[in-house]
Automatic annotation (TrEMBL), chains A, B:
<dbReference type="GO" id="GO:0046983">
    <property type="term" value="F:protein dimerization activity"/>
</dbReference>
<dbReference type="InterPro" id="IPR033896">
    <property type="entry name" value="MEF2-like_N"/>
</dbReference>
<feature type="domain" description="MADS-box">
    <location>
        <begin position="1"/>
        <end position="61"/>
    </location>
</feature>
<dbReference type="Pfam" id="PF00319">
    <property type="entry name" value="SRF-TF"/>
</dbReference>
<keyword id="KW-0804">Transcription</keyword>
<dbReference type="InterPro" id="IPR002100">
    <property type="entry name" value="TF_MADSbox"/>
</dbReference>
<keyword id="KW-0238">DNA-binding</keyword>
<keyword id="KW-0805">Transcription regulation</keyword>
<dbReference type="InterPro" id="IPR050142">
    <property type="entry name" value="MADS-box/MEF2_TF"/>
</dbReference>
<dbReference type="InterPro" id="IPR036879">
    <property type="entry name" value="TF_MADSbox_sf"/>
</dbReference>
<dbReference type="GO" id="GO:0005634">
    <property type="term" value="C:nucleus"/>
</dbReference>
<dbReference type="GO" id="GO:0045944">
    <property type="term" value="P:positive regulation of transcription by RNA polymerase II"/>
</dbReference>
<protein>
    <recommendedName>
        <fullName>MADS-box domain-containing protein</fullName>
    </recommendedName>
</protein>
<keyword id="KW-0539">Nucleus</keyword>
<dbReference type="GO" id="GO:0000977">
    <property type="term" value="F:RNA polymerase II transcription regulatory region sequence-specific DNA binding"/>
</dbReference>
Length: 102, 102
DNA sequence: GCGTCTATATATAATGG
DNA sequence: TCCATTATATATAGACG
């Protein structure tokens, strides 16, 4: 969807990979949100950039259940969260919150 | 993106809501997959239709962490999963599916 | 409900500042 | 390294079988 057609394979150039990530992530989240609204669906979306930054969306409507395949993800999340909590200090709290927020 | 422009609000007609769900879900998953490949990102996507059917995608690469806002989701998943396991029998498959449905 | 078919809306690749 | 633009690729609304 652009001036040229691209193959779906890892973009080698780090810069353009970052640019594409930014654009497509934005589009993906937009569509996730639209789906949840239009179709009254529960949607949970988690994205980690290759640099480890977290982005999330979750429609908060009724009941959302995670799929089995995400079990490991949940486990890792729990671990990370615990680590996070352990190393968290009062002043680091805000920083971490911001980090998680974007 | 079609013959006409639509507002982003819940589609009242159940039939067209289902049709739209099917189409957009497909597109969303495709884009989730593309993002993960193109940008070497970790992506986890969970969708529950309004009728309770589950759809998922998770790139299995490196580190995927769930966002804070998904905590309740995880909890619910865990609960449901436990229930599922407890009541599951070979012949109870269908029943379990119903359980997950809502 | 599900696949196919367009016309049109949107997303976005490439580019320029 | 970001914004803004814009040409093009893609997604999809609406219609039909």
């Amino acid at each position: 969807m652009g001036r040229g057609k691209i193959e779906i394979k890892r973009i080698d150039n780090a810069t353009s990979r970052q640019v594409t990530f930014s654009k497509r992530r934005s589009g993906l989240f937009k569509k996730a949100r639209e789906l949840s609204i239009l179709c009254d669906a529960e949607v949970g979306l988690v994205v980690f950039s290759s640099t480890g930054r977290l982005y999330e969306f979750a429609s908060t409507r009724k009941k959302l259940i995670l799929p089995t395949s995400m079990k490991s993800v949940i486990e890792r999340y729990t671990e990370a969260k615990e680590e996070h909590m352990q190393t968290m200090s009062a002043s680091a709290e805000a920083k971490a919150a911001m980090l998680l927020r974007n």
